[in-house]
Amino acid sequence: MDEVVSEFDKNKEFDDYSDKSLEVVSVRLVKDAPLMGGHPINSPEDAVRLLGEEMSQLDREVICILHLKTDGTPISCTFASMGAIDRSIAHPRELIKAAVLSNASTMILLHSHPSGSLEPSTEDSILTDRMIKVCDLIGIPLVDHVIVAAGRDDYFSFKEKDKLPASNLRYNLKADYKEIEFSVPVAAEKTVR
């Protein structure tokens, strides 16, 4: 009889979890109405022709990502951030999400400056640098970051200013965890050497 009670007590531990639930979530690509035909994007002018006019007319900064096939044909675009009159908040994880779901080969970042200035801000440059590195690591290169501005027909292209790498960055990845060096602590655990 003692064995039966012991077995019952063991099963009781599992009953403690029966009233708890674990949410299951998924991220899916939802397609909206198409914006354009299947013409390849081979230059910043092509990207501006596609979305620049609409974006430059907006009263706040907007960040859009164009997802491209290997031949430069657009697959989709994502308006990833609607900001304020002088800034927009964007993080690489939000900017690359739809590119992965779209099975993009490359991507172009476009954003607007309602002020009319085409000069990249410090934040624009930092975001571009981060995106170059993150996109290279995930295998979907950022081929350009284009800025359009209110009341202007021209644009600023990081690629045309030679601020984007011509090829992949080719990080020297470490195969042994002991060789990895971090510039800042990333965990609260005691360091083992």
Protein model, in words:
The chain is α+β, with helices and mostly antiparallel strands and 193 residues long. It has helices at residues 2-15, 44-56, 92-101, 122-138; strands at residues 62-68, 74-82, 106-113, 142-149, 155-157. A 5-stranded mixed sheet has the order 2-1-3-4-5, sandwiched between helices. Strand 3, helix 4 (122-138) and strand 4 (142-149) form a beta-alpha-beta unit. The protein is globular.
Determine the N-to-C terminus distance: 52 Å
State the major sheet. 5 strands, mixed
Strand content bin: 15-25%
What is the H/E order?
A: HHEEHEHEE
Please give the number of β-strands: 5
Kindly state the mean pLDDT as a whole number? 80
Order of neighbouring strands in the sheet with most strands: 2-1-3-4-5
Question: What helical percentage do the residues reach?
Answer: 25-40%
List the total number of helices.
Answer: 4
> What form results from the Cα inertia axes?
globular
Residue stretches low in confidence (pLDDT < 50, at least 5 long) are: none
Tell me the Rg in angstroms.
24 Å
Task: Describe what is shown at a glance.
The protein has about 190 residues and is α+β, with helices and mostly antiparallel strands. Helix content is about 30%, strand content about 20%.
